[in-house]
Write a structure and sequence with these properties.
heterotrimer, A alpha/beta (279), B alpha+beta (92), C alpha/beta (383), A: 279 residues, alpha/beta, Rossmann fold, 9-stranded mixed β-sheet, 37% helix, C: 383 residues, 2 domains, 5-stranded mixed β-sheet, 39% helix, 22% strand
Chain lengths: 279, 92, 383
């Protein structure tokens, strides 16, 4: 059917940067889609929203959202976002980046931002490998998976990202796959309304690179895998939230209230200056 | 389930089912097939035509079967499909 | 808030690190992110107390990489931001210093130099990061680096670094050394209204027409910050005036990288600062900076007392290098002596600018800077 109508979310995208660079069957576009849908449903003030990303395929997401955006160096979006959030706590700072960026080269920043409970929101596309550089092993690559740098099968153990986030002190932790578009959108809405550090892992298909080496050559095959093996287990123990060929545990794992770092520091500033006035 | 146990809402006659208008932005499609595969009512199928990106975009098989769940809208990585509810006049 | 209690004024006895921290506050810096490292830790410690008193943010990050990233973030969120470190931390910051160059984020980095390479001699002075300050990050770029020689200058040049950084939207480095950082001296702080403060050019185009990297005639683009009503994209990738990545256009790469260099090169005359002592009739000139320049000044005076026409040229901006000053003096003088606490860094620039005039390099490493006698001996040998 011919149409002249614009997509309802087109206004959230930078027209000059479209089409995006992502392959057919890649899940990054779905994550972007669910994110802008959440922003739309929350009627967020785009002037107060900052999207930050690191390097990698999904790193381009920041540039696609028609808001304030910054595409940082590899692994550093969280540290960069910490500076933004502290300098202007009124800004809603969201990081959209990949598993390699956030948990290999940027792993240290992740655990410390969660520990500090700085009010930034992290959405991680987990595609099990480094897609942009051609499919190398990463911190989430499953054991025995084939990648360009594990041609005989991966012998490293992957991180359980939701367990890591929960243990580091995040106030909100969830995992979905790109097939759970409704739950993911609702989860992003929840994340954006939380105080403190929040994290969502999105298991995402990478058929052209990861799938190619691991007998799932199309996005459809990878999405069907998610459909077959995903089990929603809300508020189950994140330590047991596995990702195996037979089972992907998804759901919300942590949703707690904890005062954020930026609130605490501004409380301290107010306290100090009140004391000063009394001198 | 046996037919005698079915229950029909009392106002079923009065309620008008919303009708869908499916918009496909053909040239934005990269042909992943997610919308076709995961449509609960199998409203879409792959078309014969080849778009600007050299893939077969989806086409609508039967618009009247669409229940406007908009799963296709959300699952499309390329913002190439969306549904709007047809404005409903009397007796639509 | 009672501003008088908050902003220092008058004469104070303090060390260089504290003077630097107070300079930052006087310059309007309201964000500090850092990581402890000798001999720069006192800057962080002092700011941990003072920043909050002036309503600013102090945050101790997990490492220097994060510190530098947070500083760029804060700068883009509208605050004047700074970090302070020493050699090893400065090395870790280099990649993000490149990001600050590429995204034109005004910010100040203080490097209190110690002995290297590697962990080296943490509590001892050095001038071994001079080339790292210029060439430390990958790619071609120009940067500003200032070398204070006294505690007073730690205060003054930190303000100057902020002003230059805000003017040219480029990272500015205060390249101090351990002696200047830890030395205690009197610092005179003028009343706040007498301190010259420069703020970045703000974007004033209507938001639809705003192109974040469209330069004015001075090659510096006006800057919008997040939350000010301009929705824009910034990236470390090569980008056009709109901030959009252009990773395969050689034209955009040429234009952008050339402008990033030219905005400093073509304004070098306005940026470069030197101190010139007894140069008009000098037969031999010492080119020295940082703590070494103070010993050099003594040596020059001693030489004059002994009838040798010696002079001192002290580069205050190491980058951009004051090559016109050196070239000019090289034409008038017979010899140049360059004492440095390294194995020969700025001397390469001096040699390049001096052309035919002979240049003698005087290296010193380890515990103490050159003594006046050592430099005097070099003057005498070469005069």
């Amino acid at each position: 059917m011919e149409t002249v109508m614009a997509h309802p979310f087109a206004k959230y995208l930078r027209e000059a940067m479209m089409p995006h660079i992502w392959c057919s069957g890649c899940g990054n576009g779905i994550i972007l889609n669910c994110f802008v849908q959440a922003v739309d449903e929350l009627q967020m003030d785009l002037n107060k929203l900052v999207v930050v990303s690191g390097i990698g395929c999904i790193g381009r997401a920041a540039g696609y959202v028609n808001t304030n955006s910054f595409h940082t160096t590899h692994g550093r979006p969280i540290a960069f976002a910490t500076g933004i959030k502290l300098a202007n706590p009124e800004l809603e700072v969201v990081i959209i980046s990949g598993d390699g960026d956030l948990f290999a080269i940027g792993g240290n920043h992740f655990i410390h931002a969660a520990r500090r409970n700085i009010g930034i929101k992290v959405i991680c596309a987990n595609n099990f490998n480094y897609g942009m550089t051609g499919g190398q092993q990463g911190p989430t690559t499953p054991v025995e998976a084939l990648t360009t740098t594990t041609p005989y099968g991966n012998i490293e153990h992957p991180f359980n990202l939701v367990h890591l986030a929960a243990a580091s002190g995040a106030t909100y932790v969830a995992r979905w796959t790109t097939l759970h578009v409704r739950r993911l959108t609702q989860s992003i809405k929840k994340l954006l309304q939380k105080e403190g550090f929040g994290f969502i892992e999105v298991v995402s298909p990478c058929p052209e690179i990861f799938g190619r080496y691991n007998k799932m050559r199309t996005g459809l095959e990878m999405m069907e895998w998610f459909r077959k093996v995903s089990a929603i287990e809300n508020f189950s123990d994140p330590a047991k939230a596995e990702i195996t060929p037979e089972r992907i545990v998804v759901g919300e794992f942590v949703d707690i209230a904890k005062i954020s770092y930026e609130k605490l520091i501004h409380e301290k500033i107010a306290e100090i200056n009140e004391k000063k006035m009394q001198w | 389930m046996p037919v005698r146990l079915w229950r029909k809402p009392l106002d079923a006659e009065k309620v008008k089912l919303p009708k869908a208008e499916i918009h496909i932005l053909k040239n934005q499609c990269k042909g992943c097939g997610f919308c076709i595969q995961f449509c609960p009512k199998k409203v879409l199928e792959e078309s014969e035509e080849i778009n600007a990106r050299g893939v077969h975009p989806p086409k609508v098989v039967d618009e009247s079967k669409c229940i406007i769940c908009s799963f296709c809208t959300s699952v499309c990585p390329d913002f190439a499909i969306f549904i709007v509810e047809k404005p409903c006049k009397e007796g639509c | 808030m009672n501003q008088k209690r908050v902003i220092l004024e008058g004469s104070h006895f303090m060390n260089g690190d504290i003077a630097c921290a107070e300079g930052a506050i006087a310059a309007g810096c309201r964000f500090f992110a850092g990581y402890p490292i000798t001999p720069a830790t006192e800057i962080a410690e002092h700011l941990a107390q003072r920043m909050l008193e002036v309503g600013g943010i102090y945050v101790q990050m997990e490492d220097e990489i994060a510190s530098m990233a947070a500083v760029i973030g804060a700068s883009y969120a509208g605050l004047k931001a700074m970090t302070a470190t020493s050699g090893p931390g400065f090395s870790l910051m280099q990649e993000n210093i490149g990001l600050a160059v590429m995204t034109e984020a005004p910010c100040v980095i203080v490097d209190v130099m110690r002995g290297g390479p590697s962990t080296g001699q943490p509590t001892l002075p050095g001038q071994q990061d001079v080339m790292q300050a210029k060439w430390g990050s990958h790619g071609d770029y120009e940067i500003i680096a200032l070398a204070p020689s006294s505690v007073q200058e730690m205060f003054n040049l930190t303000i100057e670094a902020f002003n230059l950084s805000e003017t040219y939207r480029v990272p500015a480095i205060v390249l101090a050394d351990e002696v200047v950082g830890h030395m205690w001296e009197k610092v005179a702080i003028p009343p706040a209204q007498k301190i010259k403060i420069v703020n970045r050019k703000k974007a004033n185009a209507p938001s639809e027409a705003y192109a974040p990297f469209m330069p004015d005639d001075d090659l510096v683009p006006p800057m919008a910050c997040f939350g000010e009503g301009y929705s824009f994209h910034a990236t470390g990738l090569t980008h056009d005036e709109h901030g959009y990545p252009q990773t395969s256009s050689s034209e955009v790469q040429q234009k952008l990288v050339k402008r990033l260099c030219d905005k400093i090169r073509k304004n070098a005359d306005k940026i470069v600062r030197v101190e010139e002592v007894l140069l008009s009739d000098a037969d031999i000139v010492v080119v020295a900076y940082g703590i070494v320049a103070r010993a050099a000044l003594s040596a020059v005076r001693k030489a004059r007392a002994e009838g040798i026409k010696a002079g001192l040229l002290r580069p205050i901006t190491l980058w951009p290098f004051p090559e016109n000053h050196v070239a000019k003096i090289a034409q008038q003088t017979k010899a140049i002596v360059v004492p440095e606490m390294n194995c020969g860094q700025l001397v390469r620039e001096v040699e390049r600018a001096a052309k035919e005039t002979p240049v003698t390099f005087l290296s010193k490493l380890g515990e103490e800077p050159h003594t006046p006698m050592e430099i005097f001996e070099a003057i005498r040998r070469n005069s």
